[in-house]
Amino acid sequence: MFEEERETVLRTCTDLVTNGVVRNTGSAGNVSIRPAGENDRIVITPSKINYDTMTPEDMLVIDGSGSVVESPSGYEPSSETPMHLNVHDVVEGSRAVVHSHPKNAIALGALEDSIPTVHVDQAYFVGDHVPVIDYVPSGSQEMGQAVSDAVQEAGAVLIRHHGLITIGGDLPEALERTLAIESNASIYHRTATLGDVPPMDDADIQRLQDPDAEL
User: Fold this and answer.
1) Residue 17's CATH number
2) Does any domain span residue 33?
3) Disulfide engineering: 100 pairs with which of 21, 173, 186, 188, CB 3.0-4.6 Å?
């Protein structure tokens, strides 16, 4: 069931590790996708399984209530399944959710109420900033509600002292959004060591938000 989606979820997990935005453990981030044409099925990563040993068969299929429909390896779904379910249910047009722990973005989020845009990648994939919300308990319904409310603003939200959630029409889009935000945060951090950090001009950001814009 949903073999292609299982492969895509695994490939996304591998890309997250390769790009250094999660540690190589199943407790450091999670990924899910709602297959096209399916309103009550979600493919999601298992709980506490190392990414380098994970296989497509380790991905679970759950329904809209979080009940396991299929788990070939017998694993439990991610402990943050309630957040994924809430986002898939509430955010129109989103089929993919990526939760990661990117160091530079988390560091900025500990100090700031938003992550300003200083690079074209974040301007294109997010807009003028990434919102930051206060810490909420991991895996709680409160987390799901807070993320669902905030993520609609920019397709991304950072939970202070925890991590980043991005969404997309598919997993490649959600992953690109994640990597753009972490790259922007790294550039912000390096620039801040030299002096004040000027944000991108609003007019330039708006031009980059054009679907036909080129980076």
Assistant:
1) 3.40.225.10
2) yes
3) 21
What b/e readout covers 77-102, taking b as 16+ CB neighbours within 10 angstroms? Answer: bbebbbbbbbbbeebeebbbbbbbbb
Residue 215 lies in a domain: no
Round to whole Å and give the CA distance between 62 and 30: 14
Answer whether 179's CB lies under 8 Å from 105's CB.
no
What is the number of structural domains in the chain?
Answer: 1
> Can you give the pLDDT at residue 20?
92
- Spell out a b/e string for 159-184, using b for 16 or more CB atoms within 10 Å of the CB, else e: bbebbbbbbbeebebbbbbbbbbbbb
pLDDT in tens, 19-39: 999 987 666 899 999 999 888
Contact yes or no for 183/122 (Cβ under 8 A): yes
pTM, two decimals, is 0.95
Structure tokens at 148: 């669902």
Q: What is the pLDDT of residues 167-179, one digit of tens each?
A: 999 999 999 999 9
Find the domain containing 136 and state its range.
3-208
Average pLDDT, the chain: 94
